[in-house]
Design goal:
Rossmann fold, NAD(P)-bd_dom_sf, mainly alpha, NmrA-like domain-containing protein, about 40% helix, NmrA-type/Isoflavone_red_sf, NmrA-like
Length: about 290
Amino acid sequence: MALKDLGIEMRALDLDAPQDSIVKPLKDIDILISAIGPRDQLAQIPLVEAAAKAGVKRIVPCAFGPILPVGVHRSRDQKEEVFNLVKRLHIPYTIIDVGWWYQFSLPRLPSGRIDYAIGVPIKTIPGDGDMPSARTDLRDVGKYVVRAIKDDRTLNATVFVYNELWTSNKIYDLLEEFAGEGIPRKYARAEEYEQQIAEADVKLKDSPEDFKARAQKVLAQYALSWGIRGENTPQFAKYLGYLDGKQLYPDVDFTSFESYLQEVISGSAQGVYDELKPMMHQADKQDQ
């Protein structure tokens, strides 16, 4: 159903336009939620500046990912730059992270039968595959956001919400059981991911927009974080000062990973970032 049919008012913004034209549509907005694309994090800067001038009462800048400290991931560092601007401008805020998405948690099956649902397949298992990582169905994120933005406890705070903890080995085990197919398991050490990052940096120095190199770096940085160092966990989130969503909202009715996997196997799941699939497939062909 179209948003307009639901009675939702649409306001267009051009973040490259003069700031006054961005401020006007934000007038009388109580809560501003940014869900900008992964490669456009810094495009939020004029949005945040306009929100401050417009008197937005609470901003939720784009986070919605795994737990990461500063200085270990390109995308996260850009997000932190936006977060810091929000704080410098004294805008009330809530930052919400959701763990690693279910939709990015699966390897390919040898038969190819679930390729339709996989935007970025898991090609290697970090470490020994037994590191737990918090995971969330992307479709459940909205449920947590609705609760958080109505909660005075989350004002000027960072919040970690997630569905379940899963290790890579357990995901492979469950997928093999549901699909009735064996899946080759290739384990990778930290040094291998660090080498991938170093190689990508060389390419990005000459060609900053190289999609393949950027994807290689980003995915290797993620694997090191959630798969080797174990940073995408409730314990590490607490160490960084996050509020625990399980304590705040224990009654949220979320999708279990098993239910999601059943959808994938049945052919009824939906993929994410489908627009990136042609570029990912082309990069795979170049590696073959």
